[in-house]
Amino acid sequence: MTNFLRRSVLSCALAALLPATFSINAQAAGAADGVDTGWPNRPIRLVVSYPAGGVSDVVARALGEKLTASLGQSVVIENKAGAGGAMGLDQVVKSKPDGYTLGFSSISPLTLSPHFGKPLFDVQKDITPVVSVMYSPVLLLGTTRLTAKSLPEMLAQAKANPGDVRWATAGLASLGHIMLEQIADQSKTQITHVPYKGGGQQLNDGLSAQFEVLSTNAGPAVMQHIKAGKFKVLAVGAPSRLDSLPQVPTLAELGYKNANTTSVFGIFAPAGVPAPVLARINAEVNKALALPEMRQRLEATDNVPTGGKAADLAKQIDAEFKTNAQIIKAAGIQLN
Description:
By secondary structure, the protein is an alpha/beta fold. It has helices at residues 12-17, 26-29, 55-71, 86-93, 108-111, 151-160, 175-187, 199-207, 220-227, 275-289, 292-299, 310-331; strands spanning 5-7, 44-48, 75-79, 101-106, 127-136, 138-142, 166-169, 192-195, 213-217, 232-237, 263-270, 304-305, 333-335. Helix 3 (55-71) packs across helix 10 (275-289). The radius of gyration is 20 Å and the shape is globular. The protein starts with a strand and ends with a strand.
C-alpha cells in the first residue's frame, strides 16, 4: 500500500453511510417562493474545484463562454483547489443560495471523500446536483523516468523494488487515488502515492519526470504531450478502448475491473436555490452541451458530454457512493 495509507477494516460507521441517498435537496426543489424572476441580473460565479490548466478548468471556461452568451450575464470562473475537489464545493455550500454561485466539480468529493474521515460539509443536505456535464476517461501514464513500457512491467518493477515507483494523483481520496489503491492491493505491490491539489501542477511535474507514474483525465494538453512522446500510456479507465489510443488496453482488459472507472463532472449549487432557477441552469447547460461546437470540443479529447436531468445525476452519485463504500471496505483501506 502507499505511504499515506494503511490497511484496516472499516468500522460499522462506514456501513451506516450506505443508506444515504443523494436525491435533489427537498428544500431546493420546493423553494419556489421568493424567486428572483429576473435571474440572472448580475454576473454568475462558477467555482472550479481544481487548479487552472487541467481538463476541468478548460471545459468549465468553454462552458462559461456559452452560458455567458445565452444568459446575457458574465460567468466568472474562480479556481478553488484542495481536498480532492471538496474545497471548491465547500465554498459553494457556504455561498448565498440565490443561483449566483455555482460549482463545477467531479462527483468524487461526494462519492469518495465521505468515506475518508469527516467531510467539510454534509454531502446529503448541503449541496444540490444541478446537471451532469461530461465523463472523462482516466489515463494511466508513465513519465520518462519510468523504464517499464506497460502496466504489468510497471507492477513487476514495483514488486521488485517496494516503494520505489511513485504514482501521482489529483489528491487524497480522488478517483486516481482509489484506482491506485485497488491496483496496488490486487497486485500485492507497494507503490508510493504522491498527491497533488489538482491536475495542473501534477502534469507539469510529470513532464519534468519528478515521479514515475501519474493518473489524469484525458484533455487537450495531455493528448498533445502523449503524441509528442513525453508520456507513454500504460492503460485507460474507460468503458472501451479510446478511438485516439486504440492500441492501449483498458484497466478491465488488464484484469483490474474495479479500477476501470471514469471521472464524472457536473454543476452543483448550494442547498436552497429556488427550483425555477435550478431548472433554468439545467436547461441552459443542456442547451450548451448540445451545440455541435461544444460537443466536438469535448469529443476531440475523448471527453464525452452528458447533460440530462438533475435527478439522473443525483441517482448516479448515490450509486457510486454505495459502490465505492463496498470497494473501500473490501480493500481495507483508510486514511491515517
